[in-house]
Design goal:
Number of helices: 13
Order of helices and strands: HEEHEHEHEEHEHEHEHEEHHHEHH
Shape: globular
Largest sheet: 6 strands, mixed
Number of strands: 12
Strand content: 5-15%
Distance between the termini: 16 Å
Length: 363
């Protein structure tokens, strides 16, 4: 009951910020990719300067990400007295999931919202939060734990040294979405091609004996429909936002992990802002972690929709099979720790620190 009340409260806050942004220019209708600051017409006062910041996102406007970014942009405009205007390019209109981070580094966009798993070699430490069957119950909890990990340890300093971090967060849990076969044993998964992001999800698929297939979220529907993949490890929000429930019949409701996301800014773009606007942007972006609740809303809605069509579509393993799944998750964590150690990191210490952050936000 406590979580439900919290979700409703956060959603009301989310709706309020969206309303605050009404009447401003629609970010999805703007094609500008310029990040240059422009002086207000007829004013020489530096305090009257306005700044236009372009954001790229690979998710559509009609998704949790779209709503999250629009709410954040409205909050930034309001907090800065409209001195900062956020222009959002949704649905890969500016850069794909595999390009967004590079676009920030190259100055082709000011800000990118994106997926660390699209850059497997760039964010190896961040991956710890995507390990399967961690004790993360929802998007807000995962987001708070990751943000705590970033702010209270120095493990991620090097990974994000090339950019200015506005926010790191997670989505909601990921089941295994199955096209047409309702698997009831771990052994049945071993014969499947399973779409899995690079990193922990792919490691988990391998430890289940399955073949991991790398497919971008924008191409996942067609890959499942054409049976290039038999199943997919992807979050409940994506199942709704990319209409995967139109091609998948069953959902193994076991916690295959959350995905992590970045919202990062080009260093030159950030340094071009006056100090007061830098502070406003940082504070407003950090506060936007509350909008992660919208991923939970999407999860609840798609679960209800699927259950309405077929009450048996969402299911869990028996205790015996779940124990096997848990063993595969533990093997995946051990493999990840070993890989990190081979890369020169203290994999066990990183894992322990992440678990500690997760436990701290649950208290």
């Amino acid at each position: 009951m406590k979580k439900k009340i919290l979700s409703i409260t956060l959603c009301m806050a989310f709706a309020g910020v969206l309303l605050a942004g009404c009447g401003t220019e629609s970010s999805s209708d703007t094609s500008s990719a310029s990040a240059a600051a422009s002086a207000s017409e007829g004013s020489a006062d530096a305090e009257e300067e306005t700044y236009e910041l372009v954001v790229t996102s690979h998710d559509p406007r009609t998704s949790a990400t779209g709503e999250f970014l629009e709410a954040w942009a409205a909050a930034v405009r309001e907090a800065s007295d409209r001195r900062i205007n956020i222009i959002i390019q949704h649905n890969s209109t500016l850069a794909s999931a595999n390009e967004s981070y590079d676009f920030v580094l190259e100055g082709k966009t000011d800000i990118a919202w994106g997926l660390q798993s699209a850059y497997a070699d760039e964010f190896p430490i961040t991956e710890v939060f995507s390990l399967p069957m961690l004790d993360i119950d929802d998007a807000v909890e995962g987001s708070e734990a990751l943000w705590k990990f970033y702010n209270e340890t120095d493990y991620l300093d090097e990974e994000y040294s090339k950019v200015h971090v506005l926010l790191l967060h997670t989505n909601c849990q990921s089941p295994i979405a199955l096209v047409d076969q309702k698997v009831t044993t771990v052994e049945e998964l071993s014969s499947m091609n399973i779409r899995a992001n690079d990193g922990p999800a792919a490691l988990m698929a391998e430890n289940l004996g399955a073949t991991p297939v790398s497919v971008t979220i924008n191409d996942l529907y067609s890959s499942l429909m054409n049976r290039e993949c038999d199943a997919a490890i992807t979050d409940w929000h994506a199942i709704r936002s990319f209409a995967l429930n139109g091609v998948c019949d069953y959902y193994l409701d076991e916690n295959m992990g959350v995905s992590t996301y970045f919202m990062v800014m080009n260093l030159d773009s950030y340094n071009s802002l006056p100090e007061d606007l830098q502070e406003i942007l940082d504070e407003t972006s950090a506060e936007a972690i509350q909008y992660a609740s919208i991923w939970n809303v999407y999860e609840e809605e798609v679960r209800n929709l699927i259950t309405l069509v077929d009450p048996r579509a969402i299911y869990t393993f028996s205790d015996e099979e779940e124990a096997k799944l848990q063993a595969a998750a533990e093997e995946t964590a051990a493999d990840w720790i070993e890989e990190m150690t081979e890369l020169g990191y203290d994999g066990q210490a990183i894992y322990d620190a992440a678990v500690e952050c997760i436990e701290a936000v649950k208290q």
